[in-house]
Amino acid sequence: MADRAERIARTDRAASRDRVAAPGRATSTDRTVPGTPAWLRARNDRAALQLLLGHGELTRNQLGELTGLSKPTASQMVQRLESASLIQRSGSQSAGPGPNAVTYAVRPDAALGVAVDIDARRMRASVVDPTGAQHPAVEVTLPRSRRTPEGDVRRAIDEACAADGTDPVRVDSVCVGVQGAVDPRTGDLRFADTLAGWPTRDVPARLQHALGLSVTIENDVNLAAIAERTAGAGRGTGGFALLWLGQGLGLAVDQA
Length: 256
Known about the structure:
Layout (H helix, E strand, L loop, with lengths): L3 H17 L16 H19 L2 E2 H8 L3 H13 L3 E7 L7 E6 L5 E7 L3 E7 L8 E5 L7 H16 L6 E8 L2 E2 L6 E2 L12 H9 L2 E6 H12 L8 E7 L1 E7 L2
Parallel strand pairs: 4-7, 7-10
Antiparallel strand pairs: 1-3, 2-3, 4-5, 5-6, 8-9, 11-12
Helix pairs in contact: 1-7, 2-4, 3-4, 5-6
């Protein structure tokens, strides 16, 4: 199994894929009304992005065949996604007699995030993208005092982006794995004595307000289990339990 930091990076890569596969973020409420043209376009676009994320590269005709759309509708869909900078031309593919067909792929920079693994003394962080490409991981030693959650996470983002050569402005989300329990309803932290200077109440909302990013905070072992289910030893299994032996014990149960 991969180390914990890589597992958290895998989890945030999956989140980046989800954000790319949900391009319908327009202000018009028409997108949310089933059966309207805008809703149908958003649904088709989402299906195409999910196919590209799963297959890697596809031609316009292949996207039409896999989605069941007509050639004109598939062409309009590809044009929308390309205009929105969500996909790009990636190459060409022989289609028999005549010119080669252009292939398309999801842009690696369509949605960038940073995965952070934090404990009492150190942070490990890496930029992640929806294609699953590997990015440099950095390790940061934390001070013993005068820490805040905003300062810790901001530093993790800046260090990860510097190592990757990425402008931090392009990051739109961060996923933080912590040694503690996180209440999914309130965002409150419990059993998080290792996080010096961090509050226990409503931490994700505080970070989102301070950083202007989408923030996910979760128990590190739970994130490791999600990563194992997505791209590790748990893939394709009927369920598993992950026992983590480190600074204390951690247990995550996957019930597929």
